[in-house]
Design brief:
Rossmann fold, 337 residues, alpha/beta
Length: 337
């Protein structure tokens, strides 16, 4: 989603909730800044790059005098906190505590980018309802968020999403698999996912697509966050003659799967999502071993697309503000929405 559309949507939501007498924080007064809170996993590339993109937008908007609310312009302030929810073994409660600390200390008018892990997002919805804050999710992908909003709208009406969710990712992957089958005749798949809600949900959605479209799913393996040896699955890929391996991971260690597949000379196409393979510099980081992998790019912007000029402008401006090295490290999910 284009940055201007995102912030236009955000400030529409702010106008609604700031005008409401039921908001947890006092109404916006003339001269006061609009405060945005960013509670997310800042150690993950998606969270890190998403925050940098938000700060870039803040600076561009403030340079033009801020945001017009009624007849008064207001500057934007951004405060973040690291929830560490991407790390192995971090309890959901710890991430929620960090988010509530940000809300109580900085008193934001809205939360943007939001939680990294879907399991945390679902629990965080009750915190957001408690404080009646507009919340725009740009990373966590579980469709259970929408389900909760539909089932109890009055409680969860503050929560929005501006990124894709797991069913849409499964749909896009299905389109890729349809093309692969048509072009190469492949019809034997092996799914390997991270043991987290969004990845397993995406894998299950794709598994259903396979069954409806004449594919054989040889196996569906999951690995805990932090795992670094995927050879047991890759050995089975070889012995059971899978033609397509579908990895679905956000953890940095998942890049090892790609390197192990090359080292073991696995005779199968890798097509899915490995987060550390998304950035522009992946060829250099993996020393060319990304060759032959089809890695789904969730959003444009980190990858500029000439047909969408705003994506090119975002990519160029990010490089100017954060440096070219940071631009080539941009995550494929998080900063673009």
């Amino acid at each position: 989603m284009k940055k201007g559309i995102f912030f236009g949507f955000l400030f529409f939501a702010l106008a609604v909730f700031i005008a409401s007498p039921y908001t947890a924080h006092s109404q916006l007064k003339p001269g006061e800044p609009i405060i945005l809170g960013v509670p997310t996993a800042l150690g993950a590339i998606e969270g890190r790059d998403g925050l940098l993109a938000i700060n870039m937008a803040r600076d561009e908007i403030n340079a033009k005098g801020g945001v017009l609310v009624g007849k008064t312009k207001h500057k934007i302030e951004v405060y973040s906190i690291d929830t560490r929810e991407h790390e192995p073994g971090i309890p959901v409660h710890d991430a929620l505590t960090a988010m509530e600390k940000l809300i109580l200390e900085k008193k934001p008018h809205a939360i943007v980018l939001g939680n990294f892990r879907s399991e945390v997002l679902l629990a965080a919805m009750d915190v957001i309802s408690k404080y009646k804050l507009p919340y725009i999710c740009s990373i966590a992908m579980t469709p259970l968020m929408q389900k909760k909003v539909l089932e109890d709208y009055d409680k969860y009406k503050y929560i929005f999403r501006n990124c894709l969710n797991a069913p849409y990712l499964a749909m896009y992957l299905g389109g890729v698999m349809g093309f692969i089958k048509k072009e190469f005749g492949f019809n034997k798949s092996y799914i390997i996912t991270q043991d987290v809600l969004w990845a397993k949900g995406t894998g299950k959605g794709l598994e259903n697509w396979y069954k409806q479209n004449g594919w054989e799913v040889i196996a569906f393996d999951t690995y805990a966050t932090g795992a670094s040896d995927f050879s047991p699955s890759l050995i089975k890929v070889r012995t059971q003659k899978a033609q397509v391996v579908v990895p679905i991971f956000d953890m940095p260690q998942s890049g090892i799967l790609l390197k192990q597949a090359h080292a073991m000379q696995i005779p199968a196409l890798l097509a899915g999502f490995i987060s550390p393979v998304s950035p522009e510099n992946a060829w250099k980081v993996f020393e060319g071993e990304v060759e032959g992998m089809v890695n789904i790019q969730f959003e444009i912007g980190p990858v500029p697309v000439k047909a969408v000029p705003k994506s090119v402008a975002f990519n160029e401006n990010y490089g100017k503000r954060c440096g070219q090295k940071a631009r080539t490290e941009l995550s494929g999910h998080g900063p673009a929405p």
